[in-house]
């Protein structure tokens, strides 16, 4: 709200600030909610839950944000233990030309952080990514990390099930 006032000349009321805080709180509560077949939900909605690591695995959740109008690209991610507890997170702005490149950079950055912390069993949760693309340098860097002496497993997650990583990726725009 302060940034909107300073940079855009917008002046919001206290009620608008409270509405935004409530909306953010609701989003965070939903992001951490445990969803199962007994959870009541509205008709027409798809239930999506977070993917958790099992046993000795640590889960790396990554996401990216690319604004086609401004060209602004941001990444974010978090690492959880097999009980779903948050271990650490990251976010930041990166240089990219399209959404796929930003997604790949999010995976690459997340894997480098996990490798530097000597995590041996990794479940990488991300979106679908095409296996052939002009961004071969990033793909090869990810491939190099995959061949290190550790175990990595990739899993697809809908954005709704990976909300924390999504919010961290968006944070990089601020």
From TrEMBL:
Q: Name one Pfam family in it.
A: RVT_3
Domain RNase H type-1 residue range list: 62-171
Q: PANTHER family per the record?
A: OS05G0353850 PROTEIN, POLYNUCLEOTIDYL TRANSFERASE, RIBONUCLEASE H-LIKE SUPERFAMILY PROTEIN
Entries under InterPro entries matching the protein: RNase_H-like, RNase_H-like_dom_plant, RNaseH-like_sf, RNaseH_domain, RNaseH_sf
Q: Which Gene3D superfamilies match?
A: Ribonuclease H-like superfamily/Ribonuclease H
List, in alphabetical order, the Gene Ontology terms for molecular function in this entry. Answer: nucleic acid binding; RNA-DNA hybrid ribonuclease activity
Q: Which domain of life is it from?
A: Eukaryota
Name by which UniProt lists this protein = Ribonuclease H protein At1g65750 family
